[in-house]
Specification:
By secondary structure, this protein is of the alpha+beta class. Helix content is 36%, strand content 19%. The strands form 2 sheets. The protein has a 7-stranded mixed beta sheet with strand order 3-1-2-4-5-9-8, sandwiched between helices. A two-stranded antiparallel sheet has the order 6-7.
Length: 314
Amino acid sequence: MPKQAPRDKAQAKAKTEKEDLGTKYAAHWTPAENASKSQTIAAVEVARKERRKNYATVAEERAIKYAKKEGLLGDGPGQAQYQEGDFMHLPFPDDHFDFVYAIEATVHASSLEKVYTEIARVLKPGGVFGVYEWLMTDKFDDTNEEHVEIRQRIERGNGVVGMSTVKEGLDAFRTIGYNMAPPLRYYVLIGDIDSLEMYHHENMALRISPSSDPKAKNKKWWYCIDGDTTQTTNWTDWWLVFRLKKSFFRIGYGLTWAMMKVGLAPKVALEVLRTLAMSVWGMRDGGREGIFTTSYLMVGRKPEGWVHPKPKEG
């Protein structure tokens, strides 16, 4: 059997890694049985595989490192444990957590209603769920070709399919139900309304900084991915923002092209760079146009009488 050339091996490896994208994991906090004030927290995260190591593993290792450093890792009161899992099928029993939070993760779910329902399942009655969601704002117009193109750039580079609007996100959060057999629709009844009891919802990306620094007050959330170093307030920020300038990208692109030519980088590397760059600039353009947010906050409570809309899937 003929030996594979290094470049062919690199391409085969890159193809395998591309097919492996999308690994999910969940991190959760568990109290000791004798904790005086027993509270449990579930954190749902999403990770992807990188070239040699799973991002989920890297993120978990990093979290464990800092948890150990702060004395937070273990089974004692207020200590943490970590567990890998799928947020569409959480590996926890019903009514398990006092609190659940998800930060810029559930945008990767195939259905917000389904993932929110699964989260509600593992919450204890009276438990609280909070989520920062990526959403298209009310200014998004699906008949506007420019708006659609911006959304598609964001989706492609971040592994998202059919990003929801704010209205769709709020509807999913409130109803926590989904179609079983058209036209029948199942809703969870909470008090006098069909909703998860919502405490608060807000586009946090639009909040004005409380800082007294004029530069900080005038910052837009997307300034850093615009490569605008004039709005930075320290050297650490300056270096981070500088690396997101188009000129810096061109340098990296040229170096990657050269490495590809001599077989030190797979051919897909340039396509990956272009995709990620278009995604970053898509997020910037979405911010500029006011049609996209990375930080739409929704917080609500699971009612005492909550019933899963499709118990067999719970």
